[in-house]
Design goal:
Elements (H helix, E strand, L loop, with lengths): L3 E10 L3 E9 L5 E9 L2 E6 L5 E9 L4 E5 L1 E4 L6 H13 L1 E3 L3 E6 L10 E6 L2 E3 L11 E6 L3 H6 L6 H15 L1
Parallel strand pairs: 4-10
Antiparallel strand pairs: 1-2, 2-3, 4-7, 5-6, 5-12, 8-11, 9-10
Amino acid sequence: MRWKNLREQTVFENRWFRVHLADVELPDGRHLDHYVIRLRPVAVATAVNEANEVLLLWRHRFITDTYGWELAAGVVEDGEDIEAAAAREMAEETGWRPGPLRHLMTVEPSNGLTDARHHIFWTDEAECLGDPEDDFESDRREWVPLKLVPDMVARGEVPAANMAAALLMLHHVRLG
């Protein structure tokens, strides 16, 4: 069954996102109004060291009022290469510059409401630059044993679905 997006009109927009109202035709011919949030791509990056520890950020998300482990992430600027954006975000948020990045996966964290795509990269080489430029992004940055990831996800210590998926995939790639 395929839903058809017949047309959209912009309801609100700023530099971060656009909200559209779509006229959607259902397979049985009925129509419904559906809000759609259009977002810029998100680039995500982390590193795994020789001890199979993954570089994570412990941060608070005010929207959900939750703490959790995350990877460095941010929006891709207009005209910016996605992989370059991932490297930039990792350096800004962790103080570690990644070596050559490898694409791990691309996820759509909420594809019933938004067109957001999160492009996740990792490296096994990183250089410490010192304190992160964007130290307000997290309370701390830690190298966490990758073998602990499944239990951390199960305990809810990685509340963001995109981050949980990425860490479980990285666990599989490195230790599986």
